[in-house]
Amino acid sequence: MNNIPEIVARQRAFFKSQASKSVSYRLSLLKTLRHEILSNEHAIYDALKHDFNKSKFETFISEFGLVLSELNLVIKKLNKWTKPKRVRSSLLTFPSREYIYKEPYGNVLIIAPWNYPFLLSIEPLIMAIAAGNTVVLKPSELTTHTSQLITHMIEKVFPSSLAASVEGGVDVATALLDQKWDYIFFTGSVPVGNIVAQAAAKHLTPVTLELGGKSPCIIDETVNLKLAARRISWGKFLNAGQTCIAPDYIIIKSNIKDQFVKLLKAEIHKRYGTNPKMSPDLPRIINKKHALRMADLLEGAEILFGGEVDIDLRYVAPTLVDSPDLNSKLMRDEIFGPILPILSYHTEKDLETIISNYSKPLAFYIFSNNKAFVERTLKTYSFGGGVVNDLLIHFGNHRLPFGGIGTSGMGAYHGKTGFDTFSHNKSISKRGNWADPGVRYAPYKGKLELLKKMFRYFS
Ligand code: NAD
Fold first, then answer.
1. In a 10 Å sphere around its CB, with 0-12 CB exposed, 13-18 middle and 19+ buried, how is residue 63 labelled?
2. What local confidence, expressed as pLDDT, does residue 457 receive?
């Protein structure tokens, strides 16, 4: 099985040799990676098209473009980020200078999902390498074309003692998790996140878990409904709804529901035509198993729009479902497909009844121009991150840490936060020798009052 223990042993030896810590070496490899990604631009589009009919445009906006901008940022900032950062000293440690040194964890394992197979493999890899670690990446077994291309690119750019891609399914992931790692970065489902956390706990290995959940989208009567419908027709059906931060369900003020449904139907028509099956812009469901899962979710549902499922073509039409019961299959787990339940509310209490039925979600969306309502809602509910009056866009700003809370995950990344995720903060005090205040030394008699004052005023 890809000789996993051998790869890990080689990477361990390489890390021990200190070679991965050279910042100029990291930079030169990241620049080579950038060159390789740019030269493979069309191969990347083709791979994603083959894997699940993802259009060039969507691959650019949600994978290729995001990876490149993170890579450019890292290349620009790495010298700054890796420098020991001086912090203000405390009079309690006087005389001293204090610093935070960024230290790579060591040997990192990254396990990636299939839904954004290029982005969610390569972005953590970039950050882990930038921070000076070695990496074994396991891309998803469900997106074979993209995963093979990733392996090919990694083999071309990195020595395998620094970074390697190991392809395979559950058996390979399990064999990888049997190894001892210094950091594990996992993106995927909640049940597998649980397995990863347990494997990591055996060795007290720190983990980042980027998971999912049922992310709500609230709409009140203060918004421009047409604009809300337009934005929702984009953010829900991008990647055919197979997005961890896609809105899972809508909760709309009951008096505007019918009007909203009408507007959303019109927007979906505009995006994908009257027969979305023929649209070149609507990706397919990743495999038949998930297409069957969608068909099962729709059984007995009150369909307002769409509803067509073609298992052989792995096609599910953009679908709107009217007010499903909170105990129905559709409302139990994350949908992860182009099906959008539309629920309604009268009071904020109704909102709470629905939202608190679920664990803390990865994303949270509010369409409202009522500032007090927005602030109250943002502060009331616990969730990974969110957007007011649009969907998904918080993912696009590298200054916003991206991650979940509770069952939607732990830890975060993007931009500098990504570099920090893969770095240990080593706190260093450099003591001066030109003075040596005597208060800490025994005998302590008569020194306690002075010590108390120092703690009160100087910490
Ligand atoms: P998944 O959990 O089935 O698989 C993810 C990875 O784990 C794959 O590489 C897979 O091979 C591996 N894996 C599967 N079973 C395993 C096991 N028993 N032991 C060890 N490894 C195993 O998830 P998926 O279907 O690829 O992705 C969809 C899920 O990922 C959704 O729940 C979605 O919300 C979540 N997701 C989260 C984010 C995020 O950033 N938070 C991003 C994308 C997807």
1. buried
2. 76
Report the separation in Å between the CA atom of 256 and the middle of ligand 1, taken as the mean of its atom positions: 37
Mutation to probe ligand 1, out of 52, 62, 115, 146 (largest number of atoms < 8 A from CB)? 115
Q: How confident is the model at residue 245 (pLDDT cuts 50, 70, 90)?
A: very high
Q: 58 an active-site residue?
A: no
Q: Alpha helices of 287-362 — where are they, by DSSP H?
A: 288-298, 348-355
User: Which of 70, 123, 244, 334 is the catalytic position?
Assistant: 244
Cα-based angle 363, 359, 355 (whole degrees, multiple of 5): 70
- What are the pLDDT digits (tens) for 252-309? 999 999 999 999 999 999 999 999 999 999 999 999 999 999 999 999 999 999 999 9
Counting residues of the chain whose pLDDT is more than 90, the rounded percentage is 96
* 1 pLDDT above the threshold of 60: no
Residue 459 has pLDDT above 80, yes or no: no
Give the Cα separation of 237 and 318 in Å (integer).
7
Q: How far is the CA of 212 from the centre of ligand 1 (A)?
A: 9
- Both tokens of 179, joined, read 């190894």
Contact 280, 272 (CB under 8 A): no
> Mind spelling out the 3-state secondary structure of 63-106?
HHHHHHHHHHHHHHHHHHHHCCEEECCCHHHCCEEEEEEEEECC
| Burial (Cβ within 10 Å: 0-12, 13-18, ≥19) of residue 36 | middle
Q: Which amino acid is at 341?
A: P
Longest dimension (CA), the chain: 88
Helix (H) or strand (E) holding 270: helix 257-272
